[in-house]
Amino acid sequence: MSRRIIIEPFKIKSVEPLFISSPSEREEYLQAAGYNPFLLKSEHVLFDFLTDSGTSAMSSAQWAAMMDADESYAGARSWEHLRESIFNLTGYPHILPTHQGRAAERILYGYLGGKGKHFISNTHFDTTRANIEFSGAEATDCLIKEGQDPFLEFPFKGNMDTERLEKLILEKGVKNMAAVILTVTNNSGGGQPVSMSNAKTVGEICKKYGVLFILDCCRIAENAYFIRHREDGYKDKSYFEIAKEMFSLADGCVMSAKKDGLVNMGGFLALRDRKLADACTNLLIITEGFATYGGLSGRDMEALAVGLKEVFSPGYLTYRIRSTTYFGEKLNIKGVPVMMPIGGHAVYIDARTFYPHIPVYQYPGQALVCELYVRGGIRSVEVGSVMFGKYDENGKLIPAKMDLVRLAIPRRVYTQSHIDYVAEVFDELLSHRDKVRGYTIIEEPPFLRHFTARFSPVGK
Ligand SMILES: *Cc1c(COP(=O)(O)O)cnc(C)c1O
Q1: CB under 6 Å to ligand 1: residues?
Q2: Which of 125, 131, 185, 223 has the most ligand 1 atoms within 8 A of CB, as the residue to mutate?
Q3: Cα dist. 2→5, 318, 319, 322, 326 in Å?
Q4: Reported CATH class of domain 60-310
Q5: How much of the chain is in helix, strand and coil states, percent to nearest 5?
Q6: What is the pLDDT of residues 292-312, one digit of tens each?
Q7: 24, 132, 237, 372: which is deepest, by most CB within 10 A?
């Protein structure tokens, strides 16, 4: 690999000013937001690492395609462009456009789910789990042991534990299995990649028992980068070929195009099986829109058709993954407990290690998210006991396995000097770490509570 500095492989044609504020102003904004950065106004945020979802900067080619979009209700030219782009990549004949990933999840998992049904995944993403559980079905995570140790260096920490997968299928009963979902890369598990050989084994097990195998392929291009650079036998294949090979192993996919689609809105569901696709199309028309647009306008479909090609460009993917690694390694050298190796779209910090004095039931991850905002104007997200915690029958918190904070990097948005600033803010956080206190939840909804819960600082 070249030792030269990683450059952004684009020049900037259009700019948007950043909002500069002081720590005391941010303290006020955060208090008004119930100490939940999801409830902040984005104009009060300097660097927004809340999510890489729908936050990409589009290319001039995407904007140009949007201008030429066909907004017809049915059979639009823009739909043909999108359908072809998705078919060339996935090889799945039945394609259903949706307004975002969770709409595809709601349709597919709502149809397959229901009481008594089981889903198994390397790790269910939060909206995936919510849609499954909302249908009455059960979602079981089945990640390899290595993926559960935040500091262990291992090339494919997103892999499914395939021995346990087979046991789980037998234990839950083959006839009760709704689907096996392989999430690539594994978002909630640290943005860690899944190897091709693991996907193959998952596919074989699903075939053996006749269980539907679905790829949650939001970050399939980023995953392909890791396969090419870490797995034997792939260094001479293109990223696109690697992704195609992975799709060939599964029965269908669900995609939030807001990630590797390089668009601000969009998603789809693609399936091999005609009957399943027909059933899903009926649901699509009820909740999303006619089958040739789902929840999307013609211009959304054009932007996505182009984005799905651009994302596999070697120059882009090298910059994307290497700049994320640059950021994570910079924090690691400072002594910030980051999950290693660095994943594709985000840097994850282990908040229990960062704030060892804050007990888990006072949400150390929430404390870190609040500190990053007040001290640096940086918005990040807790991926831990706020997001995944549950209560037992006595109302006591059952914490998540890990309390992480995620800084997700929007695609093609920030430059290296922006990243260097964020790394500097961590110096301040490190020097104040003993003084930081935890939080309690004072208000929360029954599902996806991290989006709207309100908090109160302990001892204030
Ligand atoms: C973002 C995401 C989803 C949900 O997609 P939305 O577009 O946000 O509805 C599902 N699975 C994974 C792995 C994701 O990252």
Answers
A1: 53, 100-102, 125, 127-128, 183, 187, 216, 218, 256, 258-259, 267
A2: 125
A3: 8, 11, 12, 11, 14
A4: alpha beta
A5: 45, 15, 40
A6: 999 999 999 999 999 999 999
A7: 132
* Structure token digits, residue 153: 């260096």
CA of 304 to the centre of ligand 1 (A): 16
Q: Lowest-confidence range among 81-90, 114-123, 388-397, 428-437?
A: 388-397
pLDDT computed for residue 2 by the predictor: 55
pTM summary value: 0.93
Alpha carbon of 102 to ligand 1 centroid (Å): 6
* Greatest alpha-carbon span in the chain: 61
| DSSP bridge pairs for 376 | none
What mean pLDDT do residues 164-191 have? 93
Nearest in space to 52 (alpha carbons), one of 411, 447, 323:
411
pLDDT at 315: 95
Domain range 23-52+314-457, CATH class: alpha beta
Q: Which pLDDT does position 444 carry in this prediction?
A: 87
- Between the CA of 375 and the centroid of ligand 1 the distance, in Å, is 29
What integer is the mean pLDDT of 325-331?
Answer: 96
Give the 3-state secondary structure of residue 204: helix
- The alpha carbon of 398 and the centre of ligand 1 are apart by a number of angstroms equal to 24
Confidence of residue 8 (pLDDT cuts 50, 70, 90): very high
Structure tokens at 176: 């009760």
Q: Where in the chain is the domain with CATH 3.40.640.10?
A: 60-310
Query: pLDDT tens digits for 222-237?
Result: 999 999 999 999 999 9
CA 147 to ligand 1 centroid distance, Å: 20
Q: Which of 50, 100, 127 to mutate to test the pocket of ligand 1 (most atoms within 8 A of CB)?
A: 127
Residue 188 near residue 197 (C-beta atoms within 8 A): no
Which of 194, 256, 345 should be mutated for ligand 1, with most atoms under 8 A from CB? 256
Q: Give distance in angstroms: CA of 186 to centre of ligand 1.
A: 11
What is the Cα 299 distance to its own chain's centre?
Answer: 24
> Measuring from atom 2 of ligand 1, which residue has the nearest CA?
256
Look up residue 339 and give its two tokens. 């999950």
Percent of the chain with pLDDT over 90: 90
